[in-house]
Amino acid sequence: MRSLEEAAAARGVTPSAIVKTLVVRRGDDDYLLVLVPGDRQISWPKLRALLGVARLSMPDAAGAQAATGYERGTITPFGSTTAWPVIADERVAGVVSIGAGAHGVAATLDAADLVRVLDARVADVTEDR
Which Gene3D superfamilies does this entry report, sorted A to Z (predicted)? Predict the structure, then answer.
C-alpha cells in the first residue's frame, strides 16, 4: 500500500480506523508502544506529560526491530519479543485495523477488545497531522 487511504480502502475501514503501532524510547533499553489512529500523530508534549518525563524519542529502524522483533512497517503489539507497556490514544475506538506482524497482514477487531487484551493505558496522546 502506498497511502493511508489505500490501506484503509483495502481493509474496508476509514483512515482513522487504521491503528499504527509506534515504538517510543524512554531510555536505554526502555521502550513503550503507542497506538495511534492513522490520521493522527503523537503529540510529544502530551505523551511526555502523561509519562512525567522530559525526554522521549523514536528509535531508528534497527532499534525498533531490536526492541520488538519486527521490522519497521510490520510492528505490532502482539508477539513483541518484550511485552512493552502499551498506550492507546483515546481516539482508538470502534472497529479498528492494526498491523499483524508482516507486510500486508492486519487484524480487524473492536478497539475495546484491543485495549483490554493489551492491558493498554488509554489517554489523549495525539494531535492532527
Answer: YbaK/aminoacyl-tRNA synthetase-associated domain (3.90.960.10)
106's grid cell: 492486519
Residue 58 has a pLDDT of: 97
Beta pairing class for 18-27 and 30-37: antiparallel
| Residue whose entry in the numeric block shows the C-alpha cell 510492528 | 75
What pLDDT score was predicted for residue 63? 96
List the domains of the chain with CATH numbers. Answer: 4-121 (3.90.960.10)
Summarize pLDDT for 1-46 with one digit per residue, the tens.
578 899 899 899 999 999 999 999 999 999 999 999 999 999 999 9
CA 47: distance to chain centroid?
13
Side-chain-side CA neighbours of residue 126 (13 Å): 22
Q: What pTM, to 2 d.p., does this model score? A: 0.96
